[in-house]
Amino acid sequence: MQESAYFDKYSPISGVWDEMYGQNALVRDHYRKVIEYISGESADDLNKKEELAKRLFMSQGITFTVYNSGEGIEKIFPFDIIPRIITGDEWAFVEKGIKQRLTALNLFLKDVYNNQFIIKDGIVPIDIIYSCPHFLREMYQLQVPYDIYVHISGIDLIRDHDGTFYVLEDNLRTPSGVSYMLENREITKRLFPDLLPKCNVRSVTGYPTILYKNLLALSPRQINNPTIVLLTPGIYNSAYFEHTTLARLMGVELVEGRDLVVNNHKVYMKTTTGLQQVDVIYRRVDDEYLDPLVFNPGSMLGVAGLMGAYRKGNVAIVNAIGTGVADDKAVYVYVPDMIRYYLNEEPILKNVPTHQLGNPDERALVFKNINNMVIKKTNGSGGYGMLMGHAATEKEIEDYKLEVLKDPRNFIAQPTISLSAAPCYMQGELKPRRVDLRPYALYGPSGIEIVPGGLTRVALKEGSLVVNSSQGGGSKDTWVLA
């Protein structure tokens, strides 16, 4: 195989699973065709491809919003041109594990809002559930269509030093990022048009079609053409680009709370020809802002009376209200037990070992080993409010401990997992950078479907383990080989 300057200089990180290089610095088979192709390209060609990708992202408005950077609100989403490649066998394993996990999480949500057997049997402690801000008593004994609570999920996976997949967290409320998965693939088709078919890469473009089919099936009215809307908080939301993209790809109306009204327990959309009844709402607004009459009375994002229409079964809401109790990081600890309890199976995908800081013994152990720990808020997201013990100063650690002691239930700790590395094109050279993977699963009346791929997020800063776009991370296209 032709070697090139890019690969001569590539040095895998010691003690870290490298997605491209196996043992003895031998290239893994599934990366060979990509390496051969890139080896034949000059640095000038690759720089032009990188520049083209940036221009395409900018011209198509593929951006995200950073609220605290003080640099204006929208930023281009950093994209690395070298794809992350996953074999068919690896993907089959991941897919099976995610389906098992989601089945159990849905059964848990149905149980916890109805009979609460899992609490009565002592599998999940009652105080963990009742102290969760996303456990909504308003959902108690409310029947949801087909008993599906989590229609859309993004399960974050990482690989440890030996290549084992672990679930880092479950995103079950309003998971984001799927538009970047779709756009990354479109950009890659422009950059490497011959390479995708040559490598037998499976398609991700069916996602909007599957989602639309599932939304149609949830309509409470048995009519030919139910009205589906995507409810967005508006242009200042960090994922607004995604809301517009998905509405366009599915051919549904993009609405804000002020575009909807509830009358006689039915939801209507205001149109130029009068009110039109809405059957299904794919909401990207958090629970607490959905209905000012029930939740936050100051909310301008929701629709007054929406919960009443939902309770009467006159409108379907995706994901169901109250799903956040299943992605609370304190509840995450119990997901393997849920799988054993509801399915009588051993978990296929492992959890990262996790300590709950509400438990005094575990807290003492974590504080003693804090330099090897990552501490997170149980309901935080976007990489905010984390402490990376290995990279923090003494003062940061002491301040964080005081923060934890104010409300220990709101924090968990996990050992620093090394995160696998994949090659990235950085200033004319290939360098290893840490990655994670968020596959997207769609749960409809006919079962769970997962498009073969997902969003690979990359920690672009050297030595960093934080992949969130809000913290300087980027993404790359994810290829699943047939």
Automatic annotation (TrEMBL):
What Pfam families does the database record attribute to this sequence?
Answer: CP_ATPgrasp_2 (PF14403)
Please list every transmembrane segment annotated in the UniProt record, as residue ranges: none
Q: Which Gene3D superfamilies match?
A: 3.30.1490.270, 3.40.50.11290
| Protein name as catalogued | Circularly permuted ATP-grasp superfamily protein
Organism from which the protein derives: Mucilaginibacter gotjawali
Organism classification: Bacteria, Pseudomonadati, Bacteroidota, Sphingobacteriia, Sphingobacteriales
